[in-house]
Design brief:
Elements lengths: L1 E7 L3 H12 L6 E4 L7 E6 L4 H20 L4 E6 H5 L1 H5 L6 E2 L8 H4 L30 E4 L1 E2 L10 H5 L3 E2 L2 H13 L4 E5 L13 H9 L6 E4 L9 H8 L7 E7 L3 H7 L5 H14 L4 E8 L6 H13 L4 E6 L17 H28 L4 E9 L2 E5 L5 E4 L8 E4 L4 E2 L2 E2 L1
Parallel strand pairs: 1-2, 1-3, 3-4, 4-5, 6-9, 9-10, 11-12, 12-13
Antiparallel strand pairs: 7-8, 14-15, 14-17, 15-16, 18-19
Helix pairs in contact: 8-9, 12-13
The chain binds iron/sulfur cluster.
């Protein structure tokens, strides 16, 4: 058997695509092995969302190239967003057999036979490449990519240059993939994309996808991954609030609470809009788990800009924060802006936001406990006689009821544990 090892960095969309890459290798001829093990083909599915992920991508590529030094027959394949933007830098790292663009990456098994295939300029991509995946190895929940690319140009973001214009799977493909996941035993689906809220197939949008998943026999739960604020419409919230398989968990990029910073970021909302959005989410889902992305240290962000960010988040009833120090991405508008902030200032703002996020999480967990909010989730494993799962309210749960991995667990929390609720 030919051994294939795939390393994946970045988002859920990349994880889904790595599963599709794996599905392209005929199981009669190939076996999947861990990236730490000896393999005949190493695939690195890279990410370029920050300077740090570029660094990690190069390290994984070097690891594969190092193995090739002792066994020249090894094939090293690189794909993903860092490869899409910096294939020249990757070629300088060593003897790479194939660099596959983001549009063709799911056909790597075929492309290995013809490595001289053209490298697509992703800005010209128009179609959504659907390659069905049978299951998500090593995941109890299935990440399902239904959308790719983004037509926006937020000043700090390199993603559109790595993913191309927005494009969506056909509605029938979405249902086909969901049925395959359920047939393979997945009881929860996490819908994903580069800008998921832009999903569209003619008249059909996310609301119709959600309605179809609600009707899908065998599926217990589904949730949305990150949703841009302006894509969470009142109609969509209305539709979702009628669907009991939907997990009341919303991950929403705020990025800043300062209106002047939001304007310079090119974000299509201000702090007042954002407050209204969170209020409408909590009206539809009073105990919703709302998580926010926030960037600390955007160029020109003064102390007077930073305070409104802290104040806004303090005011909002959210469950957690993901905090990112501003990372200068080549080719983006923000990379050319003056008043780039020194690292210590960024680090201090990250520290303040991170501790605020921790306080918010603790407060949210206590609220779920005090209100005895029933939790559901797909069992991942059993620990000390407890079935553990990531609940529909994005809090880890430990249920005394025995459940096999992949089965639905239910829990009305009684006690607050260090890292979860029991
Ligand atoms: S919406 Fe903005 S932040 Fe999100 S992928 Fe598009 S450009 Fe990047």
């Amino acid at each position: 058997m030919i051994r294939v090892a795939i390393a994946t960095l970045g988002c859920k969309t990349n994880s889904y695509e790595s599963a599709a890459i794996a599905a392209g290798f005929d199981p009669a001829l190939y076996e999947l092995v861990d990236f730490e093990q000896e393999a005949d083909i190493y695939v690195v599915n890279t990410c370029t969302v920050t300077g740090r992920t570029d660094f990690k991508s190069r390290n994984l590529i070097r690891k594969a190239l190092w193995r090739k030094q002792s066994n020249p027959s090894i094939k090293v394949v690189v794909t993903g967003c860092y490869a899409q933007r910096h294939s020249d830098q990757i070629r300088e790292l060593g003897d790479i057999d194939l660099i596959a663009d983001n549009q063709a990456k799911q056909d790597i098994a075929l492309l290995l036979a013809r490595p001289d295939t053209d490298f697509t300029d992703i800005t010209t991509a128009r179609d959504f490449r659907y390659r069905p995946v049978s299951r998500m190895p090593g995941h109890s929940r299935a990440f399902q990519k239904i959308q790719d690319g983004c037509d926006r140009r937020c000043a700090y973001c390199a993603v559109p240059y790595a993913r191309g214009p927005a494009r969506s799977a056909a509605f029938a493909e979405v249902l086909d993939q969901a049925r395959r996941f359920v047939a393979a035993g997945h009881r929860e689906i996490v819908l994903g994309g580069v800008n998921l809220g832009l999903y569209r197939d003619g008249e059909l949008g996310l609301a119709e996808v959600a309605g179809a998943l609600q009707q899908l026999p065998g599926l217990e739960l589904f949730r949305l991954s990150s949703m841009e604020p302006d894509c969470l419409s009142a109609d969509l919230l209305d539709c979702l609030s009628d669907l009991d398989k939907f997990c009341p968990h919303f991950h929403i990029p705020l990025q800043s609470g300062s209106d002047s910073v939001l304007r310079r970021m090119g974000r299509p909302y201000d702090s007042a809009d954002f407050r209204r959005l969170i209020a409408s989410v909590l009206k539809a889902f009073p105990d919703a788990a709302i998580g926010l992305d926030v960037i600390a240290g955007f160029p020109g962000e003064t102390e007077a800009d930073f305070v409104p960010t802290l104040d806004l988040i303090k005011d909002l009833d959210i469950a957690y924060l993901h905090v990112f120090p501003f990372s200068r991405r080549p080719g983006t508008l923000a990379a050319t802006m003056d008043k780039q902030l020194p690292r210590p200032v960024k680090e201090e703002r990250v520290r303040l936001l991170t501790s605020l996020g921790a306080a918010k999480k603790e407060r949210y967990r206590r609220r779920l406990l005090e209100r005895a909010v029933p939790l559901r989730g797909i069992c991942e494993k059993t620990v000390g006689g407890y079935s553990t799962f990531l609940s529909d309210h994005y809090i880890r749960g430990y249920s005394p009821e025995a459940a096999r991995p992949g089965e639905l667990c239910r829990l009305t929390p009684r006690v607050l544990y260090r890292d979860g609720l029991r």
